[in-house]
Amino acid sequence: MTDRIREFLEARRRAGRDVGPCLVVDLEVVRDNYTSFAKALPDTRVFYAVKANPAPEVLSLLASLGSCFDTASVVEIEQAMAAGATPDRISFGNTIKKERDIARAYALGVRLFAVDCEAEVEKIARAAPGSKVFCRILCDGTGAEWPLSRKFGCTPDMAPRVLEHAHRLGLSAYGVSFHVGSQQGNPNMWDGALKSASSIFRDLAERGIQLQMVNLGGGFPTRYLKNVPAVKAYGQAIFRALSKHFGNRIPETIIEPGRGMVGNAGVIEAEVVLVSKKSQEDEVRWVYLDIGKFNGLAETTDEMIRYPIRTAADGSATAPCVIAGPSCDSVDVLYEKEPYLLPISLEIGSKVLIEGTGAYTTTYSSVGFNGFPPLESFVI
Ligand SMILES: Cc1ncc(COP(=O)(O)O)c(C=O)c1O
């Protein structure tokens, strides 16, 4: 929570505009995060994962700082370009793309695409001839709070075939990518993936194809309730692993931070709508907020991301609570398996601050489930 955000929220309250939950993102924090990534990995290009927070102010700031962009759709490509990024600074990093979207990206000038199978390579060869492709390999997501396993990537032993297929179809077989899982708490998790990447490089070299790039993905964490290692520790661990597996022939590298770039830049202010118990004897109270899974806090699914929640009564006596959202859907419960300690004095109308919410909140918010509007967002 920065002073700038605190002042913004106070002014909003004074003006009586605090009628619903809102996210406030402090651009100064985003700027600091970008600088930390650039320092921790000085030879690596940063491709900000637009999906984490595509607010135009965030994208414009990052574009002006020299960032490139990892995009998941044509809309994200257009958002990055509107913020000032030229197409040579954009990667279409989703492995699942419609051919007409590949063609649209190509028409916009994008020449860098992710693949993880031969069928996707064929789409790119048809719709974006001559482009560079990198093949994503599977990672099991061990050590990550929000794993991205199974759905994306092929096994490392399949990647050479995919890349050779690309080469044969006139594409540039450019490199290998992986994602070690979002909110990855262990900097050493890049080691295994880099080992696989280096063996794919060797295999392709034997087939006469020189790969050039390793996309190290995202996964850099933000601080929620637990401390996380600093970006510097990730930079050091990654450099060690690169040297170990590639020796003195370290390839071009890129990273795609999303959460680590914007997570700690945002705070959501929300309000307690109801405090109740399910029976007289119940020891756990239910605290219902005006924000839930459907208007911004989707990452509480399976209680995977546990946000710090601050209140004006912090420091006073607490009791365990189930925290739930406002909608008429019983899935809309944030923390129940592991009840959350909140002040006993918390009551209807109390404000709560949910920290670390700059990433993966606004865009996860539904357009109007139960009539609740999408999460309001301010960038300061
Ligand atoms: C291809 C790709 N790159 C980067 C990211 C960003 O990951 P993170 O927010 O963990 O940095 C994601 C997240 O889903 C992704 O799918």
UniProtKB/TrEMBL annotation:
Modified residues annotated as N6-(pyridoxal phosphate)lysine in this record: K51
GO cellular component: cytoplasm
Lyase found in the keyword field: yes
Reactions catalysed, as given in the entry: L-ornithine + H(+) = putrescine + CO2
Enzyme class: lyase
Superkingdom, natural source: Bacteria
Enzyme Commission (EC) number: 4.1.1.17
Annotated active site: C328
Keyword set, alphabetical order: Lyase, Pyridoxal phosphate
InterPro entries in the cross-refs: Ala_racemase/Decarboxylase_C, De-COase2_N, De-COase2_pyr-phos_BS, Orn/DAP/Arg_de-COase, Orn_de-COase, PLP-binding_barrel
Record Pfam families: Orn_Arg_deC_N (PF02784)
Cofactor needs: pyridoxal 5'-phosphate
A Gene Ontology molecular function term of the record: ornithine decarboxylase activity
Domain Orn/DAP/Arg decarboxylase 2 N-terminal per the UniProt entry, residue ranges: 30-262
GO BP term (any one): putrescine biosynthetic process from arginine, via ornithine
Family indicated by similarity: Belongs to the Orn/Lys/Arg decarboxylase class-II family.
PANTHER family xrefs: ARGININE/DIAMINOPIMELATE/ORNITHINE DECARBOXYLASE, ORNITHINE DECARBOXYLASE 1-RELATED
Name used for this protein in its record: ornithine decarboxylase
